[in-house]
Specification:
mainly alpha; Rna Polymerase Sigma Factor, Chain: A; 9 helices; about 60% helix
């Protein structure tokens, strides 16, 4: 009997990688059973594979490769659970990253649509909306300056807002509807 090992019994890193690769579907299933989350399962499998490849020289040829990998995966899972328990509260990345700034194009288009609709109002409607809604004058002050009762000013403002809202809800030339057209506030008192 020769003390020289045959080539088939020698475990090389390349042959070990192929053997490990065959076990990946089973590792994914086991990780899913442990974590119940696809992303967490993928992370645990990744950590397991990294450790297995890095430490493949410690694997004893002829022993159960799947059992060895499952043990590594389980220990990685437990380590991750402990890491998360130490972290307390984790803020998701999308909450702490800068959300960015709007380019302003949509707001500019919306404002242009409002100005066009405002220009299409009757002169009396424009004046009363400007004074109450934009300038912030009270109904009583506008009524005194225009020789109207405060209740009449309120009803005219209401009708002018409704007319403006209808103009904004009318499809524009391109066939698009302005954003928030039904919720446009021109200022002053709350819309009914």
């Amino acid at each position: 009997m020769s003390k020289v090992k045959s080539m088939s019994s020698i475990s090389t890193p390349r042959s070990g990688a192929f053997e490990i690769e065959d076990q990946i579907p089973a590792l994914r299933r086991y990780a899913w059973k442990l974590t119940r989350d696809a992303d967490d399962a993928a992370d645990v499998v990744q950590m397991c594979l990294e450790r297995a490849v890095r430490n493949f020289h410690m694997f004893q040829a002829g022993s159960n490769l799947r059992g060895w990998l499952f043990t590594i995966l389980y220990h990685e899972f437990i380590s991750e659970v402990r890491r998360r328990a130490r972290r307390k509260h984790v803020v998701p990345m999308d909450e702490w990253l800068d959300p960015g700034v709007s380019g302003g194009q949509e707001d500019a288009v919306e404002m242009a649509e409002i100005q066009r609709a405002f220009g299409r109002l009757a002169p009396k409607e424009r004046e009363i909306l400007r004074r109450v809604g934009i300038d912030g004058e009270s109904y009583a002050a506008v009524g005194m300056q225009m020789n109207l009762k405060a209740g009449t000013v309120k009803s005219r403002v209401f009708r002018a807002r409704e007319h403006l809202r209808n103009l904004l809800n009318t499809p524009v030339a391109a066939g698009a509807m302005p954003r928030n057209a039904g919720r446009i506030r021109t200022g002053g008192s709350p819309m009914p």
